[in-house]
């Protein structure tokens, strides 16, 4: 059985790929029932498209193999705390748990002054996901 460290180590491998492509070193995966369903690389700089964050890429890839409602019982692992944009997508699809390595103070959806992932003010989002992190510092 894989551990949190195993999943975050895999995210770090994806982050290295992102960095080699000229992007920030961020990698993310979606796990359901202990299986990696999808992965995402940070591609915003290399594709000149700000929406190509690793977490969103992983979610979009998961939607190719799972129904949107199935994401409600999945876990997103990322080398970094999801930003506000990624946090909105995470909440929209109801991902039930977030595990991240590095904190992103200014624009993080958990630790910034706009903790969107933890918000309970949008009634259609339901209960905020469980959050685990920052787990440990992951090299950038």
TrEMBL record:
<dbReference type="GO" id="GO:0008270">
    <property type="term" value="F:zinc ion binding"/>
</dbReference>
<keyword id="KW-0862">Zinc</keyword>
<keyword id="KW-0479">Metal-binding</keyword>
<protein>
    <recommendedName>
        <fullName>CMP/dCMP-type deaminase domain-containing protein</fullName>
    </recommendedName>
</protein>
<dbReference type="GO" id="GO:0016787">
    <property type="term" value="F:hydrolase activity"/>
</dbReference>
<dbReference type="Pfam" id="PF00383">
    <property type="entry name" value="dCMP_cyt_deam_1"/>
</dbReference>
<dbReference type="InterPro" id="IPR016192">
    <property type="entry name" value="APOBEC/CMP_deaminase_Zn-bd"/>
</dbReference>
<feature type="domain" description="CMP/dCMP-type deaminase">
    <location>
        <begin position="2"/>
        <end position="113"/>
    </location>
</feature>
<dbReference type="InterPro" id="IPR002125">
    <property type="entry name" value="CMP_dCMP_dom"/>
</dbReference>
<dbReference type="InterPro" id="IPR016193">
    <property type="entry name" value="Cytidine_deaminase-like"/>
</dbReference>
